[in-house]
């Protein structure tokens, strides 16, 4: 605890010209006498801290002192800050914020404006526009479980809607394809699985139980796909109406579009054929039509007919 306080005092003084001992004492919930002992310890470590007397006095670093940061260039430090900010956009973490402050503290004042520009050029944000408020409690609980090797339990719903109770050893949180997953060792299946956080409910820590970390494998499947299931893809062709070009570009990229003489657009892609693919195509509505393969066209047509039937029945009642 003392070491963290000493480091925090150094970072604070690097970012501020002067601070009063009383403010430091209140910030770290210790006595003023303890703060002065901390200052002596920091001085003994070779970091020159000066106490200024008078009404506007306080504690500050010796003029011109900066931490040695020759190991990394400004461009390399800016890349680290950009990455941390992008991570924080989807996964806010106090440690990330503290590290950003530390990095800023070692940049010379003369380079500060240029560094701010370089570190703000790119921001990668996968979080939804309405935020991650529903996921945040799960993320915080699972982060604690991963850090302290705590066993977790939850009720899980797979892609087919089947519910099961899972007890797992959480090893890693993964943000992939705009979705959060937990990579964990499932005690029931006795193997590693990926669990989508949105499919979890009644998430809790199993009190009094911990685990020993295992070697984490590289996984490409979720718990909805058993390891024995082959990773098969289906190549399909979609025809988008002319007015839906923007939609096709958004999903597949402008390079994937092939124009037709009548103004429509063709897209040829290969995706795993599963419930997600069926729902995705149906979600495009009347703006897209499956041309190939025949069996996929038949599946979409059948499901569209079932949807239309429900609406016709509702209208007649």
UniProtKB/TrEMBL annotation:
Limits of the HTH deoR-type domain: 2-57
SUPFAM superfamilies (alphabetical): Winged helix' DNA-binding domain
Keywords, ordered alphabetically: Transcription, Transcription regulation
Single GO MF descriptor: DNA-binding transcription factor activity
Pfam families with a match to the protein in the record: HTH_11 (PF08279), WCX (PF25583), WYL (PF13280)
UniProt-recorded name of the protein: YafY family transcriptional regulator
Native source organism of the sequence: Paenibacillus ginsengarvi
């Amino acid at each position: 605890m003392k070491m963290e306080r000493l480091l925090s005092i150094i970072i604070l003084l690097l970012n501020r010209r002067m601070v009063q001992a009383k403010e430091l004492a209140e910030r770290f919930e210790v006595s003023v006498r303890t703060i002065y002992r901390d200052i002596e310890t920091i001085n003994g470590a070779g970091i020159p801290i000066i106490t200024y007397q008078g009404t506007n006095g306080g504690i500050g670093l010796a003029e011109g002192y900066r931490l040695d940061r020759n190991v990394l260039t400004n461009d390399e430090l800016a890349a680290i800050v950009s990455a941390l900010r992008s991570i924080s956009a989807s996964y806010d973490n106090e440690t990330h914020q503290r590290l950003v402050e530390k990095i800023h503290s070692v940049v010379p004042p003369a380079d500060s404006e240029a560094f701010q520009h370089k570190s703000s050029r790119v921001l990668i944000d996968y979080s939804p526009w309405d935020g991650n408020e529903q996921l945040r409690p799960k993320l915080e609980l699972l982060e604690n479980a991963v850090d302290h090797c705590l066993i977790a339990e939850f009720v899980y719903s797979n892609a087919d809607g089947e519910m099961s109770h899972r007890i797992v050893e959480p090893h890693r949180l993964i943000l992939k394809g705009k979705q959060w997953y937990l990579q964990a060792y499932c005690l029931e299946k006795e193997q590693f699985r990926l669990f989508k956080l949105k499919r979890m409910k009644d998430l809790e820590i199993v009190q009094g139980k911990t685990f020993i970390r295992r070697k984490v494998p590289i996984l490409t499947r979720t718990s909805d796909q058993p390891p024995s299931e082959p990773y098969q893809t289906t190549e399909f062709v979609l025809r988008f109406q002319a007015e839906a070009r923007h939609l096709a570009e958004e999903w597949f990229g402008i390079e994937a579009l092939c124009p037709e003489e009548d103004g429509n657009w063709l897209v040829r892609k290969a995706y795993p054929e599963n419930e997600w693919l069926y729902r995705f195509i149906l979600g495009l509505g009347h703006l897209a039509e499956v041309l190939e393969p025949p069996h996929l066209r038949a599946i979409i047509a059948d499901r569209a007919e079932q949807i239309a039937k429900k609406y016709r029945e509702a209208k007649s009642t």
